[in-house]
């Protein structure tokens, strides 16, 4: 069974940066589009960034220009570089394929606060 393990979250001030990582236990990223999702308290989980097998990227309007998604197929790892963070970015961040195929990992908490 494939496992997804997210890491790299933390507490950061507005305007700060974080780099999230998502490690998969199998070679799923090489064969699938990958997405980063987030869920804020009281809100539904939403897709914030995705990258296809061919490398095409897409972003939610709320993060466009600030977040960058990437992948390393050899390491079975996906990344989310987050810059100019805002309090509204506070959420638990998850990765998965797109469309969603695997069980969710535990996520990584990102808190943006002064």
Short summary:
Helices cover 0% and strands 48% of the residues. The chain is mainly beta.
Which properties best describe this structure?
114 residues, 6-stranded mixed beta sheet, 4-stranded antiparallel beta sheet
N- to C-terminal separation?
A: 40 Å
The shape is: globular
Return residue spans where pLDDT drops below 50 for at least 5 consecutive residues.
none
Name the strands of the widest sheet in spatial order: 2-10-9-4-5-6
Succession of helices and strands: EEEEEEEEEE
Number of strands: 10
Helical region count? Answer: 0
- The class by helix and strand makeup works out as mainly beta
Task: Give the overall average pLDDT.
Answer: 95
Beta-strand share of residues: over 45%
Radius of gyration: 13 Å
Structure description:
By secondary structure, this protein is mostly beta strands. The chain has strands at about 5, 10, 20-25, 35-40, 45-50, 55-60, 65-70, 75-80, 90-100, 110. Strands 2-10-9-4-5-6 form a 6-stranded mixed beta sheet, with no helix packed on it. It starts with a strand and ends with a strand. The mean pLDDT is about 95.
